[in-house]
Design brief:
This protein has two helices and no strands. The chain is mostly helical. The chain has a domain of about 40 residues. The chain is flat, with a radius of gyration of 18 Å. It starts with a helix and ends with a helix.
C-alpha cells in the first residue's frame, strides 16, 4: 500500500515538472496553473527543509552542553 502511495506522489511530481516545462514554452492556461502550483509547492518544501536544517543544528548544539 505504501508503495502505491509513493508511486502516486512520484507521478504527480513528474506531471508537475512536465507542466512547468510546457508552461515555459507557452502552454494552455490550465498548464500554467498547474506549473504555478508546482513551483509554489516546491518553494514551500525548500523553506521547510531549510527550517528543519536550522532547527536540527540549533538542537544538536544545545545538546552538546550536557
Amino acid at each position: 500500500m505504501g508503495l502505491v502511495v509513493l508511486l502516486g506522489i512520484l507521478a504527480f511530481v513528474i506531471f508537475g515538472c512536465v507542466c512547468v516545462v510546457w508552461a515555459a514554452r507557452g502552454g494552455p492556461r490550465w498548464v500554467r496553473g498547474v506549473a504555478w502550483v508546482t513551483t509554489g509547492l516546491g518553494e514551500v518544501v525548500v523553506a521547510l527543509a531549510k527550517s528543519n536544517k536550522r532547527n536540527s543544528r540549533s538542537n544538536s548544539s544545545s545538546d552538546d552542553g550536557d
